[in-house]
Amino acid sequence: MMRYWEAGALLLLLAAAPIAFAQKEAAKPGRPPAAQSRGSAPAPKAPQNISDPGASVALRLLQMSPEQRERALEKFPPERQAQIRQGIARLDNLPPQQKQRRIRLYQMLVALPPEKQLLARRQIQAFNRLPPERKRVAAPELRKLDRMPESERQERLASDEFKNKFTPAEREMLAVISQYLPLL
Amino acid sequence: MKCPLESQDNLELLLDYGTARCTGREAAAFAQHLATCSACSRAIAEQQVVCGMLDEWEAPPVSASFTRRLYQRIEHGSGWRARLAESLTGAVRVLFVWRGVPIAAAACLIITAGILLDQRMATVPSHPPNAQVVEAAQPDQVVHELDDLEMLGNFDRSVRADGNSKL
């Protein structure tokens, strides 16, 4: 009876080897590590390597040579092909720094959990729809909030000055964007 | 005297008869009964065979350390930790006798599988090739991603318009 116990224990120990290998492998960063998180919110995963396209098809197209891109787009309907070509060309024509910044923001956005992505996307759209005079007030506030430590950011969001300066919708927008897209 | 086998009373007489536990009047009465009861006679005869065999049996010698180890175990109790430790040391010991060979072979197989799995996973790229991913994608998905990039570009421009970005 004891022999079975011994053999069982030995096999269990040894069976742990491949599991340990697999876990070690899983711990390796396939995607970039998480960026600084705000409070208890899930941290957006800021890419270490800007050239890592992750799961994004658009970023993969951007990395391809024009010939490869054309071959890859062949299967798509013609009107979609034109639309995609235009979008890629707009990105390609950006100054390198601006292009990298855009890719980085995108990678941070898609690294969020789906529900947070939706929330952040809505608030960014809301920001883009603000009239120019409100954008001029909101943009510096956003940059200020982004530079603050979390506790200070919370204080600022709860302050009377902040409440008096912005509408409830703007306050929500600034809170969400500064929380989920910390690197502007 | 009532027959112990029939009445199921005084069955211990069958075991005690012929020993120091059954003497005097009781032994005499049972001896008288045996003269007339074949079932009890047969039981006594079988009992004597068993006793004879037990007398002839010799217990195998125990190892010199048996008593010491027994008292150690009693002293330390037989908690799960002690049993686990003993099992593990025993598991290592079992490798050194022939019965451990199949186990060692199985262990080698498992380790080899682990190493192969590790190497295979290390060689798998974190993302499939670009062309494959694009071919498998839906055009709407690409358009949606480009819209997101455009939206973020507008946002980035607006936020930077009034100052310096940190990126």
Topology:
The complex is a heterodimer of chains A (184) and B (167).
Chain A: H1 2-27, H2 57-63, H3 66-73, H4 78-92, H5 96-110, H6 114-129, H7 132-147, H8 150-158, H9 160-165, H10 168-180
Helix pairs in contact in A: 6-10, 7-10
Chain B: H1 4-7, H2 12-16, H3 24-36, H4 38-56, H5 66-76, H6 80-94, H7 100-123, H8 130-136, H9 139-161
Helical residue percent of chain B?
Answer: over 70%
- The succession of helices and strands of chain A, N to C, reads HHHHHHHHHH
Quickly count the helices of chain A.
10
Could you report the average pLDDT of chain A, rounded to the nearest whole number? 79
By secondary-structure content and strand pairing, the structural class of chain A works out as mainly alpha
Oligomer category = heterodimer
Termini gap of chain A = 66 Å
Structural class of chain B: mainly alpha
Instruction: Catalogue the unreliable spans of chain B.
Output: none
Structure description:
The complex is a heterodimer of chains A (184) and B (167). Helix content of chain A is 71%, strand content 0%. With 184 residues, chain A is mostly helical. Chain A has 2 domains: 66 residues, no CATH class; 72 residues. In chain A, helix 6 crosses helix 10 and helix 7 packs across helix 10. In chain B, 11% of the residues are buried. The model of chain B has no long low-confidence stretch (mean pLDDT 77). The chains are: A mainly alpha (184), B mainly alpha (167).
